[in-house]
């Protein structure tokens, strides 16, 4: 079964900064999609902030098994109703892979329920990612560790909830560490945060990073049919109770009334 | 050290429904505060939706070690900027105990990052809460299980993230189960969800429920000083790096520039 | 890729108790293997306590992607060196599905590191299993809940560590609840505990139970190559350090010496 | 309430190695106990491998709120029945803090259910411990990070189950990282693993390390009364069921019979 991936990028640095444009002439989204499409089991397309609805209509999300998200300087420009839509899609079963500075994106903060903050330094220093969950599907084909010679530093504390699994922890030349690969589940949706990918370095051309992204697409894809309304809170009336009970005592709701939200 | 608790209640049913008013003549908030104040180590006060800023100013939250939250029919009337403030206080270290229908409150949904939905039935049926984490601080003084003869049913699936700990699981006469006591941590804040407390039953007069609430106040209180800005993402400049590094390669940010949010 | 399953059963009740023999004429292991083999992607065989090495040689385990374990009255007869071998296989990547009374088996207790105790009653009462993790791979093809009209009761507290995920919670007619589907990871091995399956009831002929077991086999299988020595603790000598360091200060170990265990 | 701590040490290096003896003239156990006793709320005593029953009788464990464990070259000499006793005490509510090379001690491996392996290098290199759980009780009085100028390196992957909380992650000069502060709960017992403390360096004289150990003693102490038999699996007979049920169908056990273990 083909995994349908949509790679979303704010696509701003590439338009405004000659350096970023030269590193990613196809845009960060283009490079990531190209990396994913090297796996014949994946069909990756792209969407950007500038498109109507940021390219993320209900229909597009319904056709997306896994969304990748890259954002940085334009987090605030992402429309709240699109964020709602993305969260809803995750809860219904869409996978979502957040990359690098997406730690401060609206959907990540919304899905984590926490500040998602960290410390940072842009010095092109060495990052070494250590696998902490050997033989995890996201680390398939890798072993031990891999290095990125030039990366932005992200340091702990990383303001996220305890993850389901810690898959990578990074070492930085300047002395910091960072939990750089974390899994979560929200509703029926699998979420992976993966740290690398500063816009001024060619990180998304790195073979190990590309491998992790391909693995993450496979891991995050949930083959189950989407949940139609992941926030539904159905009333189960007394006469439909699975065990015979009689209504007792006072009640607030009229029969057939919907619950409060 | 005294634990300063603020019991927040939307306080709407008590004003509009004669039955609820007769069960909780002091308001649900009043009864809960009274229960907590039976412990000399706790000083509980109340706040309600109707007060300016819903009674939850920055100053009030700064003076609150643990907030209790009860809401049901007026979730939508809670101002978003107050919700932001409450979440920020949690991240900085305030404890937060969500009761019953607060599962659909704005702060709970925001802090969980998930739908927080469930199934429900208002039939006054028997609920039996089983302790699943023996000797957990929240279960102090209890053992095995306790019963509430008349409660609203909440059924699984409960749309929340995997908790840190599952403390209670409920059995319902009509055939459902529910994870009715769950712990979380968001930033420096301890969060406890506790299921019982439908407005038409005298649940908050029950000795076991009161005991759990007192225990939860103790458990959720974080004696550490509050984190001033829990979302701060400080830059660590090259010359302040803990290990000697030299800046290498291109960069996007000017020296001293703040990060994007 | 075919998933190679070995279904292990102590196979004692079937030999000694006419009732159990009549319910499971092929043995519990035979029935489970037959259920799994209905999925063309699975090739299930069996092994029992009575075989040399209980049928679980190193070679057999190396050829097993997922082991299923059923035991009850003969836990104490399982040889400790076989238990070591099974745990080692799990750590190296073999999946392991523990069924019902295997909660007290040696491998389960060893892998959990906890008492694994519970309460129980053999009264043929109704069990209703509620899905608490919608769209989890282990629940594929199921929705909401399913019932077993006659089952042994297992009640909380269940003496296990907090799981990675709670997949099922059971309701029992006599008033108890139980976390009846739990996932864990130990080393590279995926572990699933699944509650139903008392030997005097035809539980393993139930379509929903069989579906869960097939799903669990798929979920637990780890396609990665086995880790050769999952307990290896290699020394990384100074001259092979990834960053240039000089040895400083005193040391206890001679160069090339192995660590203590 | 005074927290009664027993600091256990194999006490072998101190007897055989002049260097270790000179760093820890009172033994590692003596130094740790002295550090803990600086807190008036703690009363720490010591026990060693050489004492009868290794100093860990049932009575001694019953009088211990929190056990600290340091071992390295003599893991194999710890008697299995003492290990059973220690695990049982943890399950009944005793706290247990494992230090450094205790990662390979029998009780730690037993309680984790996993290999507990890692990589290592004895080069006196710099370790920097980063707090990943700000305002956690175990980090009280600390902020950000602290350094140990000379330590043994431990590197990932650390073969332990996903923890309840990751409290510290270490950076090493030679290029590795390690999750150096992890919490677990097994039965009613709180467990903390804390990495630093190689025998040839004066780590347990470091003010920050001592602070963490004091904090850990407070965190791990469970004020609840010990569970008498933490492995008990009581039968709940039909006539004592909480809901009226009738026995149905066949059963294996005679009335009043104990369950199998």
Please, could you describe this protein's structure?
Chains A, B, C, D: It holds the Pfam family ThuA. Chains A, B, C, D: InterPro entries: Class_I_gatase-like (IPR029062), ThuA-like (IPR029010), Trehalose_catabolism_ThuA_prok (IPR009381). Chains A, B, C, D: Residues 4-220 form the ThuA-like domain. 4 copies of one chain form a homotetramer. The first copy, chain A, has one domain (3-220): Rossmann fold (3-Layer(aba) Sandwich), CATH 3.40.50.880. Helix content of chain A is 23%, strand content 28%. Chain A is built from 7 helices and 9 strands; from the N terminus they run βαααβαβαβαβββββα. Chain A has a 9-stranded mixed β-sheet. In chain A, helix 5 (80-92) packs across helix 6. The mean pLDDT of chain A is 96. Chains A and B meet through helix 6, strand 5, strand 6 and strand 8 of A and helix 6, strand 5, strand 6 and strand 8 of B.
Averaging pLDDT over every residue of chain A, what do you get?
96
How many distinct beta strands of chain A? Answer: 9
Helical segment count of chain A = 7
Structural class of chain A: alpha/beta
Major sheet description of chain A: 9 strands, mixed
Domain count of chain A: 1
What form of chain A results from the Cα inertia axes?
elongated
Termini gap of chain A: 38 Å
């Amino acid at each position: 079964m083909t995994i349908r991936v949509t790679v979303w990028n704010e696509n701003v640095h590439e338009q405004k900064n000659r350096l970023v444009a030269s590193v990613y002439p196809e845009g960060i989204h283009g490079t990531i999609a190209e990396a994913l499409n090297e796996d014949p089991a994946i069909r990756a397309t792209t969407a950007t902030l500038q498109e109507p609805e940021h390219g993320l209509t209900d229909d597009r999300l319904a056709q997306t098994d896994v969304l990748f998200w890259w954002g940085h300087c334009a987090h605030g420009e992402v429309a709240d109703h699109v964020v709602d839509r993305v969260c809803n899609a995750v809860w219904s079963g869409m996978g979502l892979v957040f990359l690098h500075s997406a730690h401060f994106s609206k959907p990540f903060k919304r899905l984590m329920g926490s500040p998602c903050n960290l410390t940072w330094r842009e010095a092109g220093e060495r990052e070494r990612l250590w696998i902490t969950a050997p033989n995890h599907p996201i680390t398939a084909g890798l072993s031990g560790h891999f290095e990125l010679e030039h990366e932005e530093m992200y340091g702990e504390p990383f303001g996220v909830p305890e993850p389901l699994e810690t898959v990578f922890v990074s070492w930085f030349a300047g002395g910091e560490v960072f939990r750089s690969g974390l899994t979560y589940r929200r509703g029926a949706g699998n979420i992976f945060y993966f740290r690398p990918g500063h816009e001024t370095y060619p990180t998304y051309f790195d073979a190990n990073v590309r491998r992790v992204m391909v693995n993450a697409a496979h891991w995050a894809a949930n083959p189950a049919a989407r949940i139609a309304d992941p926030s539904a809170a159905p009333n189960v009336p007394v006469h439909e109770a699975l065990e015979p009970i009689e209504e007792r005592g006072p009640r607030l709701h009229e029969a057939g009334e919907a619950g409060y939200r």
